[in-house]
Design goal:
The chain has 225 residues and is α/β, with parallel strands linked by helices. The protein has helices spanning 23-30, 44-52, 55-62, 133-151, 162-170, 184-199, 211-214, and strands at residues 8-13, 18-20, 37-41, 96-105, 108-116, 122-131, 156-159, 206-208. The chain is elongated, with a radius of gyration of 20 Å.
C-alpha cells in the first residue's frame, strides 16, 4: 500500500513557480536560483492556499519565534529553513559563503573553493597546485573577500580554520613551505593576496565554522576518513 503524501512544496520564486509533490521537484526549481522563495506544507490544500498568497507573508510566519530543532544533516533543507537548499543549523546565516581547502599530503596537491550557503552552488574553485592546507584556507578567505569587493556585495564568510583566519587578520600568510621552483607560482599568488589585504579595507564578518556542532563545512571536499 502506497504511503500517503505528507509534504507539498510551494515555490513562489524559482525557475517555474508552483506546487510540487516532492523535494526533488522543488529543488530543481530553486537550487542556484538567486532570491528563491519556497516552503513545505503538510497538505495539498494548504500548499495551494499558500501559493495563492504572497511569499513574504509565509516567510515571516516561518521564522516566528519558536524553539527550533538542531539541523541533523538528514533534512535538505530542514523544515524551519526557507532561505537555503542546504541543511544549515538555525544559527548559521545563509547570506554567506563557506570556504575550505583540501590537500593530498603536507605539502601536496592543494585546492580550495567557496560555496554559496543560500544556493549550495560552488562560486569559485582554485587548484590543484603544490601547497599546504593552511595556505589554501588562507587564500580561500582572501579570494572571497576580493570577490565581495569586486561585486559590491556584503556577506558573511565561514571558515573552519582558525589559523587561516588569524593569518588574514594579520595580513600575512605565515607558512613555512619551502620556496622552490615548484612552489614559485603559489608564492606569487600568496604575495598578491597579502598585497590585497594591505591595500583594502573590509568589514566582512569572518566566522569560525563550528564543525563539532554543525558537521562539516558545506565547502568541504569530502575526503576525510
Amino acid at each position: 500500500m502506497a504511503k500517503p503524501q505528507t509534504k507539498f512544496y510551494v515555490v513562489w520564486r524559482g525557475r517555474e513557480p508552483g506546487v510540487y509533490a516532492t523535494w526533488e521537484q522543488c529543488q530543481a526549481q530553486v537550487k542556484g536560483f538567486s532570491g528563491a522563495a519556497y516552503k513545505s506544507f503538510p497538505t495539498f490544500a494548504e500548499a495551494q492556499a499558500a501559493f495563492a498568497g504572497e511569499a513574504p507573508v509565509y516567510k515571516r510566519a516561518a521564522v516566528a519565534p519558536r524553539k527550533q530543532p538542531k539541523a541533523t544533516g538528514l533534512e535538505n533543507p530542514p523544515d524551519y529553513r526557507h532561505d537555503t537548499v542546504l541543511p544549515l543549523p538555525p544559527e548559521v546565516t545563509a547570506d554567506a559563503w563557506a570556504v575550505d581547502a583540501a590537500c593530498s599530503g603536507n605539502p601536496g596537491q592543494m585546492e580550495y573553493r567557496g560555496v554559496d550557503l543560500a544556493t549550495g552552488a560552488e562560486v569559485f574553485h582554485f587548484g590543484p597546485v603544490l601547497g599546504t592546507n593552511n595556505i589554501g584556507e588562507f587564500l580561500a578567505i582572501v579570494h572571497a573577500l576580493a570577490a565581495f569587493h569586486k561585486q559590491g556585495i556584503s556577506k558573511t564568510i565561514y571558515s573552519d580554520s582558525r589559523i587561516a583566519m588569524g593569518w588574514v587578520k594579520k595580513g600575512k600568510c605565515k607558512t613555512t613551505l619551502d620556496r622552490t621552483a615548484r612552489t614559485a607560482r603559489l608564492y606569487e599568488i600568496i604575495a598578491r593576496a597579502e598585497t590585497w589585504l594591505a591595500t583594502h579595507r573590509f568589514g566582512t564578518p569572518i566566522v569560525k565554522w563550528q564543525t563539532s556542532r554543525w558537521g562539516e563545512i558545506p565547502a568541504d571536499f569530502g575526503r576525510k576518513g
